[in-house]
Structures are given as C-alpha cells and as structure tokens.
Design brief:
alpha/beta, 6 strands, globular
C-alpha cells in the first residue's frame, strides 16, 4: 500500500466532469492512494489557460505529497503535457493517459470549423487537430514516466469514418502514442467508457505501481 504522501490527480476530458472518473477514483482509493478528482471548465478556455488553472489547483491540494501521479482521460493528458512544458511539478511521479489525442483527432480536422463544434467544445477543442502546426503537435515528447492506454472500439461510426485506422470513436490508436512514453497498450474499450472499464482500471493501477504493463 502506498504511503499517505503518495497522491493521484484525476483529470477528466473535454466536455466531461469529475463524475466520469469516479469509478477510477474509488478503485485507486481502495489501493490506498490519496486521490484528488479535479474538475475544470474545459469548454470555455484554451489549453494553456486550463493547464495553468489546473496546475495551481494541483499544487494547492498536494502540498503534503512527496510524489504526485496523474491519471488522465482524453484532453486531460494534453493538460499534463502543457503543465510539464511550462511549469513542471518537482514531485511528479507516473502518468497514465487514457485515450489521449497526443497527435490530435481527425474529427477536429473535419468538423472543427462548424459552429456547433465550436459551441460544444470551445477553444480547447479547436486546438486538438492533427496538422503538424497544431497545438498538440507542438508540445513535443514527454520527459516523465508515462503509460498510454487507448481503445479500439467505437460507438460512433460517423466519427470513426473520419479517423484513419483503429480508433475508439474519437482518437486513433496511432494518435494516442507519444514519443518518450514508457509503455503503450490497447484495450477493447470505447473513448467514452474507457475510464470505467474494469480492465483499464486494473492496468492503470499496475502502471502506477510498477511503471510498466505486462505483455
């Protein structure tokens, strides 16, 4: 069981709330971690602004921590990459990214210009395209212990028709990868329900404890 000074920050994805991470929260608490399931206003600010806000909250709730891990879903992983690029956390431990659009999503490329996409997803959503000069593709490799777990099942065939190769309905398997990661794994799960998938939760716990996944 980890010491009380080992904390885990949970960060939900775009257009989601901490409720989407509650299953993960309960599982990690049972393992003995001090868990902070943080919320942020994902729809009304750019990624740099959101990352700055989240970084401030992280430092506030982890003052007593000697090691701080992250478990992120979707855009939450991009916030951690931005935070580490601009204001790195000295106590950073391991990071598990679930279905992160590390190289963007073709869905944004195809419909990101529409008024309804902008209305629903806001300025941060506009930054998740796949172009070489897109925000996510300018962040570079990760320099921390990072495990990426993404899905290959989709409930949204319309989105999947826009995405190249295996995908979870929002992000392709290829786009989830990021240079510098320690481990990569594909789960038979969808983007929306990745955080409540039992196998995904078990794999998350394993990476936080060991820094790797078994083949």
């Amino acid at each position: 069981m980890p010491p009380d000074s080992e904390h885990v920050i949970l960060l939900h994805g775009l257009c989601r709330t901490p409720r989407s991470m509650r299953g993960m929260q309960r599982a990690l608490q049972k393992e003995g971690y001090v868990v902070h399931n943080l919320g942020y206003d994902s729809r009304h600010h750019t990624i740099p602004v959101l990352a700055e806000q989240v970084a401030h909250e992280v430092r506030k709730v982890t003052e007593a921590a000697t090691r701080v891990h992250f478990v992120t879903h979707s855009m939450g992983g991009i916030l951690v990459r931005q935070m580490e690029a601009t204001q790195p956390l000295e106590t950073l431990g391991r990071v598990v990214m679930l279905s992160p659009p590390n190289h963007g999503s073709e869905v944004v490329d195809r419909i990101g210009h529409s008024w309804i996409f902008d209305r629903v997803n806001g300025p941060a959503g506009q930054q998740l395209g796949t172009a070489p000069d897109s925000f996510v593709n300018q962040l570079g490799p990760v320099h921390f212990e990072c495990g990426v777990l993404t899905g290959d099942r989709s409930l949204n065939w319309i989105n999947s028709c826009m995405i190249h190769g295996p995908n979870d309905g929002k992000v392709s398997v290829a786009s989830a990868r990021i240079e510098g990661m320690q481990s990569f794994k594909v789960a038979h799960a969808t983007h929306t329900f990745m955080t409540s998938n039992r196998a995904v939760i078990a794999d998350t716990i394993q990476f936080l404890k060991t820094g790797c996944w078994l083949p």
